Protein backbone atom coordinates (compact mmCIF):
# COMPACT_ATOMS: atom_id res chain seq x y z
CA UNK A 1 0.00 0.00 0.00
CA UNK A 2 1.23 3.50 -0.88
CA UNK A 3 1.33 6.37 1.59
CA UNK A 4 1.48 8.90 -1.23
CA UNK A 5 2.31 9.21 -4.93
CA UNK A 6 5.49 11.22 -4.42
CA UNK A 7 7.85 11.67 -1.48
CA UNK A 8 10.03 14.75 -1.70
CA UNK A 9 13.00 14.63 0.67
CA UNK A 10 14.00 18.12 1.83
CA UNK A 11 11.95 21.27 2.41
CA UNK A 12 14.43 23.71 0.92
CA UNK A 13 13.56 25.92 -2.04
CA UNK A 14 13.67 23.06 -4.57
CA UNK A 15 11.60 20.64 -2.47
CA UNK A 16 8.93 23.19 -1.60
CA UNK A 17 8.51 24.52 -5.13
CA UNK A 18 8.38 20.95 -6.44
CA UNK A 19 5.71 20.04 -3.87
CA UNK A 20 3.54 22.96 -4.98
CA UNK A 21 3.99 22.08 -8.65
CA UNK A 22 3.04 18.46 -7.97
CA UNK A 23 -0.12 19.56 -6.21
CA UNK A 24 -1.01 21.90 -9.07
CA UNK A 25 -0.71 18.87 -11.33
CA UNK A 26 -2.98 16.84 -9.04
CA UNK A 27 -0.33 14.52 -7.51
CA UNK A 28 -0.31 13.60 -3.80
CA UNK A 29 2.94 14.59 -2.14
CA UNK A 30 4.60 14.34 1.25
CA UNK A 31 7.70 16.43 1.95
CA UNK A 32 10.03 14.94 4.57
CA UNK A 33 12.32 17.44 6.29
CA UNK A 34 14.78 16.56 9.03
CA UNK A 35 14.73 20.00 10.64
CA UNK A 36 11.93 20.59 13.11
CA UNK A 37 11.86 24.30 12.19
CA UNK A 38 12.98 26.26 9.12
CA UNK A 39 16.52 27.65 9.40
CA UNK A 40 16.87 31.34 10.19
CA UNK A 41 20.46 31.85 8.96
CA UNK A 42 20.97 33.94 5.87
CA UNK A 43 21.93 32.09 2.71
CA UNK A 44 20.88 33.06 -0.82
CA UNK A 45 19.49 36.57 -1.11
CA UNK A 46 18.73 37.23 -4.77
CA UNK A 47 16.40 35.88 -7.42
CA UNK A 48 17.30 36.31 -11.06
CA UNK A 49 14.98 37.38 -13.87
CA UNK A 50 13.86 33.96 -15.05
CA UNK A 51 13.03 32.81 -11.52
CA UNK A 52 11.01 36.00 -11.03
CA UNK A 53 9.12 35.21 -14.24
CA UNK A 54 8.45 31.66 -13.04
CA UNK A 55 7.19 32.93 -9.68
CA UNK A 56 5.03 35.48 -11.47
CA UNK A 57 3.53 32.84 -13.76
CA UNK A 58 2.26 31.04 -10.65
CA UNK A 59 1.05 34.23 -8.94
CA UNK A 60 3.72 33.88 -6.26
CA UNK A 61 4.97 37.46 -6.39
CA UNK A 62 1.67 39.03 -5.39
CA UNK A 63 2.15 38.75 -1.64
CA UNK A 64 5.80 39.87 -1.66
CA UNK A 65 5.16 43.48 -2.60
CA UNK A 66 7.88 45.40 -4.43
CA UNK A 67 11.26 43.75 -4.00
CA UNK A 68 14.48 45.82 -4.06
CA UNK A 69 16.08 45.60 -7.50
CA UNK A 70 19.78 45.63 -8.39
CA UNK A 71 20.22 46.30 -12.12
CA UNK A 72 23.91 45.38 -11.99
CA UNK A 73 25.35 41.95 -11.36
CA UNK A 74 28.86 40.71 -11.98
CA UNK A 75 30.81 38.09 -13.87
CA UNK A 76 33.85 36.97 -11.94
CA UNK A 77 33.72 40.23 -9.99
CA UNK A 78 33.60 42.38 -13.14
CA UNK A 79 30.45 44.57 -13.24
CA UNK A 80 27.76 43.15 -15.53
CA UNK A 81 24.70 45.12 -16.60
CA UNK A 82 21.81 42.64 -16.43
CA UNK A 83 19.47 44.68 -18.66
CA UNK A 84 17.33 42.24 -20.65
CA UNK A 85 14.04 41.95 -22.47
CA UNK A 86 11.93 40.95 -19.47
CA UNK A 87 9.56 42.49 -16.95
CA UNK A 88 12.17 41.61 -14.27
CA UNK A 89 15.64 42.71 -15.41
CA UNK A 90 18.43 42.57 -12.85
CA UNK A 91 18.62 40.87 -9.46
CA UNK A 92 15.78 40.95 -6.95
CA UNK A 93 16.54 40.91 -3.24
CA UNK A 94 14.66 38.19 -1.40
CA UNK A 95 16.20 36.41 1.56
CA UNK A 96 16.09 32.64 1.25
CA UNK A 97 14.19 32.41 4.53
CA UNK A 98 11.39 34.47 2.95
CA UNK A 99 11.49 32.48 -0.29
CA UNK A 100 11.12 29.24 1.66
CA UNK A 101 8.30 30.61 3.84
CA UNK A 102 6.45 31.78 0.73
CA UNK A 103 6.84 28.44 -1.02
CA UNK A 104 5.85 26.44 2.05
CA UNK A 105 2.65 28.49 2.49
CA UNK A 106 1.85 28.05 -1.18
CA UNK A 107 2.58 24.31 -1.32
CA UNK A 108 0.70 23.47 1.89
CA UNK A 109 -2.16 25.72 0.77
CA UNK A 110 -2.41 23.51 -2.30
CA UNK A 111 -2.51 20.40 -0.12
CA UNK A 112 1.13 19.29 0.15
CA UNK A 113 1.95 17.68 3.49
CA UNK A 114 5.25 18.83 5.02
CA UNK A 115 6.45 16.45 7.75
CA UNK A 116 9.18 18.14 9.77
CA UNK A 117 11.55 16.40 12.16
CA UNK A 118 11.76 13.39 9.82
CA UNK A 119 15.29 12.39 8.83
CA UNK A 120 15.47 10.00 5.90
CA UNK A 121 18.00 7.23 6.52
CA UNK A 122 17.01 4.41 4.17
CA UNK A 123 15.76 3.96 0.60
CA UNK A 124 14.82 0.77 -1.23
CA UNK A 125 13.57 0.81 -4.78
CA UNK A 126 11.09 -1.98 -5.52
CA UNK A 127 9.60 -2.85 -8.89
CA UNK A 128 6.39 -0.95 -8.17
CA UNK A 129 7.30 1.60 -5.49
CA UNK A 130 10.05 3.14 -3.39
CA UNK A 131 10.32 2.52 0.34
CA UNK A 132 11.71 5.32 2.44
CA UNK A 133 12.69 4.78 6.04
CA UNK A 134 13.53 7.45 8.50
CA UNK A 135 13.62 8.58 12.05
CA UNK A 136 11.23 10.97 13.73
CA UNK A 137 10.33 11.53 17.37
CA UNK A 138 7.94 8.59 17.38
CA UNK A 139 10.76 6.27 16.23
CA UNK A 140 11.58 4.60 12.92
CA UNK A 141 8.98 5.02 10.20
CA UNK A 142 8.66 3.41 6.76
CA UNK A 143 6.74 5.16 3.99
CA UNK A 144 6.00 4.00 0.44
CA UNK A 145 5.53 6.10 -2.67
CA UNK A 146 5.48 5.64 -6.42
CA UNK A 147 8.34 8.12 -6.82
CA UNK A 148 10.92 9.80 -4.61
CA UNK A 149 12.71 13.06 -5.34
CA UNK A 150 15.82 13.95 -3.38
CA UNK A 151 15.83 17.70 -2.81
CA UNK A 152 18.01 17.21 0.24
CA UNK A 153 20.86 19.52 -0.59
CA UNK A 154 24.53 19.19 -1.38
CA UNK A 155 25.18 16.34 1.09
CA UNK A 156 22.13 14.47 -0.27
CA UNK A 157 21.29 11.24 1.52
CA UNK A 158 18.97 10.19 -1.31
CA UNK A 159 21.81 10.57 -3.82
CA UNK A 160 24.02 8.30 -1.71
CA UNK A 161 21.36 5.72 -0.86
CA UNK A 162 20.15 5.41 -4.46
CA UNK A 163 23.73 5.12 -5.75
CA UNK A 164 23.81 8.07 -8.15
CA UNK A 165 27.20 8.71 -9.79
CA UNK A 166 28.38 12.17 -8.76
CA UNK A 167 31.45 12.97 -10.85
CA UNK A 168 33.30 16.26 -10.74
CA UNK A 169 36.18 18.05 -9.11
CA UNK A 170 37.14 18.25 -5.48
CA UNK A 171 37.67 21.59 -3.87
CA UNK A 172 40.90 23.45 -4.52
CA UNK A 173 40.11 26.68 -2.66
CA UNK A 174 38.72 27.53 0.73
CA UNK A 175 36.64 30.63 1.39
CA UNK A 176 35.57 31.98 4.76
CA UNK A 177 32.41 33.86 5.58
CA UNK A 178 31.25 35.37 8.83
CA UNK A 179 28.71 37.69 10.38
CA UNK A 180 30.35 39.93 12.95
CA UNK A 181 29.16 42.81 15.13
CA UNK A 182 31.06 45.64 16.78
CA UNK A 183 33.40 46.50 13.90
CA UNK A 184 33.58 49.64 11.76
CA UNK A 185 35.09 48.86 8.36
CA UNK A 186 34.18 50.15 4.89
CA UNK A 187 31.85 48.13 2.68
CA UNK A 188 33.59 46.63 -0.33
CA UNK A 189 32.68 44.20 -3.08
CA UNK A 190 35.22 41.80 -4.59
CA UNK A 191 38.09 44.02 -3.47
CA UNK A 192 41.31 42.51 -4.74
CA UNK A 193 44.45 42.76 -2.61
CA UNK A 194 47.90 41.26 -3.27
CA UNK A 195 47.13 38.42 -0.81
CA UNK A 196 43.47 37.80 -1.42
CA UNK A 197 39.92 38.91 -2.07
CA UNK A 198 37.67 40.67 0.46
CA UNK A 199 33.96 41.43 0.65
CA UNK A 200 32.26 43.37 3.44
CA UNK A 201 28.68 44.51 3.74
CA UNK A 202 27.16 46.21 6.77
CA UNK A 203 23.49 45.40 7.34
CA UNK A 204 21.16 48.04 8.81
CA UNK A 205 21.22 46.22 12.19
CA UNK A 206 24.98 46.83 12.44
CA UNK A 207 26.08 43.28 11.63
CA UNK A 208 28.80 43.08 8.99
CA UNK A 209 28.89 40.13 6.57
CA UNK A 210 32.46 39.25 5.59
CA UNK A 211 33.58 36.93 2.83
CA UNK A 212 37.23 36.35 2.03
CA UNK A 213 39.66 34.14 0.18
CA UNK A 214 43.38 34.18 0.76
CA UNK A 215 44.99 33.27 -2.55
CA UNK A 216 46.24 29.70 -2.41
CA UNK A 217 44.21 28.74 0.70
CA UNK A 218 43.13 25.12 0.35
CA UNK A 219 40.26 23.40 2.21
CA UNK A 220 41.24 22.44 5.76
CA UNK A 221 38.41 20.02 6.40
CA UNK A 222 37.57 21.81 9.65
CA UNK A 223 35.57 24.92 10.45
CA UNK A 224 37.73 28.04 10.91
CA UNK A 225 38.27 29.42 14.40
CA UNK A 226 37.60 33.01 15.41
CA UNK A 227 41.36 33.61 15.51
CA UNK A 228 41.80 32.26 11.97
CA UNK A 229 39.08 34.63 10.78
CA UNK A 230 40.74 37.63 12.42
CA UNK A 231 44.21 36.67 11.15
CA UNK A 232 43.07 35.95 7.59
CA UNK A 233 41.20 39.25 7.32
CA UNK A 234 44.23 41.08 8.66
CA UNK A 235 46.64 39.39 6.25
CA UNK A 236 44.40 40.25 3.27
CA UNK A 237 43.25 43.80 4.12
CA UNK A 238 45.55 44.96 6.91
CA UNK A 239 42.45 45.71 9.05
CA UNK A 240 42.06 44.66 12.66
CA UNK A 241 38.65 43.11 13.41
CA UNK A 242 39.73 41.44 16.65
CA UNK A 243 37.37 43.65 18.69
CA UNK A 244 34.26 42.27 16.95
CA UNK A 245 31.88 39.59 18.18
CA UNK A 246 31.44 36.70 15.78
CA UNK A 247 27.79 35.78 15.31
CA UNK A 248 28.28 33.14 12.63
CA UNK A 249 31.37 31.72 10.94
CA UNK A 250 31.98 28.99 8.40
CA UNK A 251 34.19 27.86 5.55
CA UNK A 252 33.03 26.83 2.12
CA UNK A 253 34.81 25.72 -1.02
CA UNK A 254 34.74 25.39 -4.77
CA UNK A 255 33.80 21.70 -5.06
CA UNK A 256 32.17 21.20 -8.45
CA UNK A 257 30.13 18.05 -9.03
CA UNK A 258 27.03 17.06 -10.96
CA UNK A 259 25.21 13.74 -10.99
CA UNK A 260 25.65 11.80 -14.23
CA UNK A 261 21.90 11.10 -14.37
CA UNK A 262 19.14 13.18 -12.76
CA UNK A 263 16.86 10.13 -12.76
CA UNK A 264 17.42 6.53 -11.71
CA UNK A 265 14.21 4.57 -12.14
CA UNK A 266 11.70 5.85 -9.61
CA UNK A 267 14.18 8.18 -7.92
CA UNK A 268 15.09 11.68 -9.09
CA UNK A 269 17.28 14.47 -7.75
CA UNK A 270 16.74 18.22 -7.95
CA UNK A 271 18.56 21.32 -6.71
CA UNK A 272 21.84 21.08 -4.81
CA UNK A 273 21.32 17.32 -4.45
CA UNK A 274 21.94 17.06 -8.21
CA UNK A 275 24.79 19.56 -8.46
CA UNK A 276 27.26 21.11 -6.08
CA UNK A 277 28.78 24.49 -6.85
CA UNK A 278 29.89 27.78 -5.36
CA UNK A 279 26.92 30.16 -5.16
CA UNK A 280 28.78 32.67 -7.39
CA UNK A 281 26.52 35.33 -8.85
CA UNK A 282 23.57 34.02 -6.86
CA UNK A 283 23.02 31.25 -9.38
CA UNK A 284 22.72 28.27 -7.00
CA UNK A 285 19.23 28.88 -5.65
CA UNK A 286 17.94 29.89 -9.08
CA UNK A 287 19.29 26.68 -10.61
CA UNK A 288 17.62 24.67 -7.84
CA UNK A 289 14.25 26.36 -8.29
CA UNK A 290 14.33 25.92 -12.05
CA UNK A 291 15.10 22.20 -11.69
CA UNK A 292 11.94 21.91 -9.60
CA UNK A 293 9.84 23.86 -12.09
CA UNK A 294 11.01 21.60 -14.92
CA UNK A 295 10.33 18.37 -13.02
CA UNK A 296 7.06 19.18 -11.24
CA UNK A 297 4.57 19.11 -14.12
CA UNK A 298 6.29 16.13 -15.75
CA UNK A 299 6.17 14.03 -12.59
CA UNK A 300 2.54 15.04 -12.01
CA UNK A 301 1.71 13.90 -15.57
CA UNK A 302 3.47 10.60 -14.85
CA UNK A 303 1.50 10.11 -11.63
CA UNK A 304 -1.77 10.85 -13.44
CA UNK A 305 -0.78 8.25 -16.04
CA UNK A 306 -1.04 10.78 -18.88
CA UNK A 307 2.41 10.72 -20.43
CA UNK A 308 5.97 9.63 -19.58
CA UNK A 309 8.23 12.67 -19.82
CA UNK A 310 10.53 11.84 -16.93
CA UNK A 311 13.63 11.18 -19.04
CA UNK A 312 13.29 14.65 -20.55
CA UNK A 313 13.92 16.05 -17.07
CA UNK A 314 17.50 14.75 -17.21
CA UNK A 315 17.86 15.55 -20.91
CA UNK A 316 16.85 19.17 -20.35
CA UNK A 317 18.27 20.01 -16.94
CA UNK A 318 21.64 18.21 -17.04
CA UNK A 319 22.98 20.45 -19.85
CA UNK A 320 21.65 23.57 -18.11
CA UNK A 321 23.33 22.53 -14.86
CA UNK A 322 26.60 21.71 -16.65
CA UNK A 323 26.56 25.12 -18.33
CA UNK A 324 26.00 26.95 -15.04
CA UNK A 325 28.73 24.93 -13.30
CA UNK A 326 31.12 25.80 -16.15
CA UNK A 327 30.40 29.53 -15.88
CA UNK A 328 30.85 29.33 -12.11
CA UNK A 329 34.21 27.59 -12.63
CA UNK A 330 35.25 30.35 -15.03
CA UNK A 331 34.17 33.01 -12.54
CA UNK A 332 36.03 31.19 -9.77
CA UNK A 333 39.26 31.54 -11.76
CA UNK A 334 38.63 35.24 -12.36
CA UNK A 335 37.68 35.93 -8.75
CA UNK A 336 39.93 33.77 -6.63
CA UNK A 337 43.21 33.59 -8.56
CA UNK A 338 46.21 35.71 -7.61
CA UNK A 339 47.71 38.60 -9.58
CA UNK A 340 48.63 36.31 -12.49
CA UNK A 341 44.98 36.42 -13.59
CA UNK A 342 45.00 40.23 -13.99
CA UNK A 343 45.71 40.25 -17.77
CA UNK A 344 42.79 37.86 -18.31
CA UNK A 345 40.54 40.10 -16.20
CA UNK A 346 41.59 43.12 -18.26
CA UNK A 347 40.76 41.41 -21.56
CA UNK A 348 37.51 40.05 -20.12
CA UNK A 349 36.45 43.55 -19.04
CA UNK A 350 37.11 44.81 -22.58
CA UNK A 351 35.01 42.01 -24.05
CA UNK A 352 32.18 42.64 -21.60
CA UNK A 353 31.96 46.23 -22.83
CA UNK A 354 30.76 44.79 -26.17
CA UNK A 355 26.98 44.46 -26.31
CA UNK A 356 26.80 40.89 -27.74
CA UNK A 357 29.14 39.64 -24.99
CA UNK A 358 27.28 41.52 -22.26
CA UNK A 359 23.98 40.20 -23.57
CA UNK A 360 25.27 36.62 -23.74
CA UNK A 361 26.52 36.73 -20.15
CA UNK A 362 23.38 38.49 -18.89
CA UNK A 363 21.16 35.83 -20.49
CA UNK A 364 23.31 33.12 -18.95
CA UNK A 365 23.34 34.52 -15.41
CA UNK A 366 19.66 35.51 -15.45
CA UNK A 367 18.49 32.15 -16.83
CA UNK A 368 16.63 33.96 -19.62
CA UNK A 369 18.74 32.27 -22.29
CA UNK A 370 17.63 28.73 -21.39
CA UNK A 371 16.00 26.82 -24.25
CA UNK A 372 14.73 23.29 -24.28
CA UNK A 373 15.00 21.64 -27.71
CA UNK A 374 14.56 23.40 -31.04
CA UNK A 375 11.56 25.60 -30.26
CA UNK A 376 11.70 25.64 -26.48
CA UNK A 377 12.44 29.23 -25.57
CA UNK A 378 10.56 30.89 -22.73
CA UNK A 379 7.49 33.04 -22.91
CA UNK A 380 6.84 35.91 -20.49
CA UNK A 381 4.49 35.14 -17.60
CA UNK A 382 0.82 35.13 -18.60
CA UNK A 383 -2.20 34.66 -16.31
CA UNK A 384 -3.25 31.46 -18.12
CA UNK A 385 -0.16 29.71 -16.70
CA UNK A 386 -1.28 30.22 -13.09
CA UNK A 387 -3.26 26.97 -13.06
CA UNK A 388 -0.13 24.95 -13.86
CA UNK A 389 -1.65 23.60 -17.07
CA UNK A 390 -0.29 24.02 -20.58
CA UNK A 391 -1.59 26.89 -22.71
CA UNK A 392 -2.58 27.06 -26.36
CA UNK A 393 -1.93 30.59 -27.62
CA UNK A 394 -4.18 31.20 -30.61
CA UNK A 395 -4.28 28.03 -32.71
CA UNK A 396 -7.21 25.75 -33.45
CA UNK A 397 -9.13 25.33 -30.21
CA UNK A 398 -11.33 22.64 -31.74
CA UNK A 399 -8.24 20.45 -32.26
CA UNK A 400 -7.14 20.99 -28.66
CA UNK A 401 -10.61 20.63 -27.08
CA UNK A 402 -10.06 16.95 -26.10
CA UNK A 403 -7.07 18.13 -23.99
CA UNK A 404 -9.03 20.91 -22.28
CA UNK A 405 -8.50 19.28 -18.86
CA UNK A 406 -4.73 19.80 -19.29
CA UNK A 407 -4.49 22.86 -21.56
CA UNK A 408 -5.83 26.41 -21.15
CA UNK A 409 -6.65 28.67 -24.08
CA UNK A 410 -5.37 32.23 -24.53
CA UNK A 411 -4.80 34.76 -27.28
CA UNK A 412 -1.61 34.88 -29.32
CA UNK A 413 1.32 36.88 -27.98
CA UNK A 414 2.47 38.15 -31.37
CA UNK A 415 4.49 35.23 -32.71
CA UNK A 416 1.70 33.08 -34.12
CA UNK A 417 -0.07 30.13 -32.57
CA UNK A 418 1.96 28.20 -30.02
CA UNK A 419 1.60 25.45 -27.45
CA UNK A 420 3.18 26.33 -24.12
CA UNK A 421 4.27 23.80 -21.52
CA UNK A 422 3.17 24.29 -17.90
CA UNK A 423 6.68 25.56 -17.05
CA UNK A 424 6.38 28.44 -19.52
CA UNK A 425 8.50 27.08 -22.37
CA UNK A 426 7.33 26.72 -25.97
CA UNK A 427 6.57 23.14 -27.04
CA UNK A 428 5.22 23.84 -30.52
CA UNK A 429 4.90 26.79 -32.89
CA UNK A 430 2.28 26.73 -35.65
CA UNK A 431 3.67 25.97 -39.10
CA UNK A 432 7.15 24.95 -37.99
CA UNK A 433 7.28 21.50 -36.48
CA UNK A 434 4.50 18.99 -37.09
CA UNK A 435 0.86 19.24 -36.19
CA UNK A 436 -0.70 20.69 -33.08
CA UNK A 437 -2.35 17.35 -32.39
CA UNK A 438 1.00 15.53 -32.43
CA UNK A 439 2.48 18.11 -30.06
CA UNK A 440 -0.48 17.79 -27.69
CA UNK A 441 -0.03 14.00 -27.61
CA UNK A 442 3.73 14.29 -27.10
CA UNK A 443 3.56 16.71 -24.16
CA UNK A 444 0.16 16.03 -22.61
CA UNK A 445 -0.69 12.42 -23.51
CA UNK A 446 -3.69 10.89 -25.20
CA UNK A 447 -6.81 12.92 -25.87
CA UNK A 448 -9.70 12.12 -23.55
CA UNK A 449 -12.04 11.12 -26.40
CA UNK A 450 -10.11 7.95 -27.20
CA UNK A 451 -9.13 6.81 -23.71
C1 LIG B 1 25.80 29.93 4.05
C2 LIG B 1 25.24 29.78 2.68
C3 LIG B 1 25.19 30.89 1.84
C4 LIG B 1 24.66 30.76 0.56
N1 LIG B 1 24.61 31.85 -0.24
C5 LIG B 1 24.02 31.75 -1.45
C6 LIG B 1 23.88 32.88 -2.30
O1 LIG B 1 24.28 33.98 -1.95
N2 LIG B 1 23.28 32.71 -3.50
C7 LIG B 1 22.81 31.49 -3.92
O2 LIG B 1 22.24 31.37 -5.01
N3 LIG B 1 22.94 30.41 -3.14
C8 LIG B 1 23.53 30.51 -1.93
N4 LIG B 1 23.66 29.41 -1.16
C9 LIG B 1 23.20 28.13 -1.72
C10 LIG B 1 21.70 28.00 -1.61
O3 LIG B 1 21.33 28.15 -0.26
C11 LIG B 1 21.33 26.63 -2.17
O4 LIG B 1 21.72 26.58 -3.52
C12 LIG B 1 19.85 26.34 -2.08
O5 LIG B 1 19.42 26.32 -0.74
C13 LIG B 1 19.57 24.99 -2.71
O6 LIG B 1 18.26 24.62 -2.45
P1 LIG B 1 17.87 23.09 -2.31
O7 LIG B 1 16.41 23.07 -2.04
O8 LIG B 1 18.39 22.34 -3.47
O9 LIG B 1 18.68 22.54 -1.05
P2 LIG B 1 18.71 23.03 0.46
O10 LIG B 1 18.29 24.43 0.59
O11 LIG B 1 20.04 22.64 0.98
O12 LIG B 1 17.58 22.17 1.17
C14 LIG B 1 17.79 20.81 1.48
C15 LIG B 1 16.86 20.43 2.62
O13 LIG B 1 16.93 19.03 2.81
C16 LIG B 1 16.95 18.74 4.19
N5 LIG B 1 17.58 17.43 4.37
C17 LIG B 1 18.86 17.11 4.13
N6 LIG B 1 19.07 15.79 4.38
C18 LIG B 1 17.87 15.28 4.78
C19 LIG B 1 17.45 13.98 5.17
N7 LIG B 1 18.28 12.94 5.21
N8 LIG B 1 16.15 13.81 5.53
C20 LIG B 1 15.28 14.86 5.49
N9 LIG B 1 15.65 16.11 5.13
C21 LIG B 1 16.92 16.32 4.77
C22 LIG B 1 17.77 19.88 4.77
O14 LIG B 1 17.53 20.05 6.15
C23 LIG B 1 17.28 21.06 3.94
O15 LIG B 1 16.18 21.71 4.53
C24 LIG B 1 24.19 29.50 0.11
C25 LIG B 1 24.24 28.39 0.95
C26 LIG B 1 24.77 28.52 2.22
C27 LIG B 1 24.82 27.30 3.11
Describe this structure in words.
It is built from 11 helices and 25 strands. The radius of gyration is 23 Å and the shape is globular. Strand 22, helix 10 and strand 23 form a beta-alpha-beta unit. It folds into 3 domains: 195 residues, FAD/NAD(P)-binding domain, CATH 3.50.50.60; 80 residues, 2-Layer Sandwich (Alpha-Beta Plaits); 62 residues, 3-Layer(aba) Sandwich (Glutaredoxin). The longest helix is centred in the last third of the chain and has 27 residues. 30% of the residues lie in helices and 27% in strands. Strands 1, 2, 8, 9, 10, 11, 19 and 20 form an 8-stranded mixed beta sheet that branches. It has a 5-stranded antiparallel beta sheet with strand order 14-15-16-13-17, with helices on one face. Strands 23-22-24-25 form a 4-stranded mixed beta sheet, covered by helices on one side. Helix 1 runs parallel beside helix 3 and helix 6 packs antiparallel against helix 7. It is of the alpha+beta class and 451 residues long. The structure holds flavin-adenine dinucleotide. The site of flavin-adenine dinucleotide has 29 residues, from helix 1, strand 2, strand 9 and helix 6.
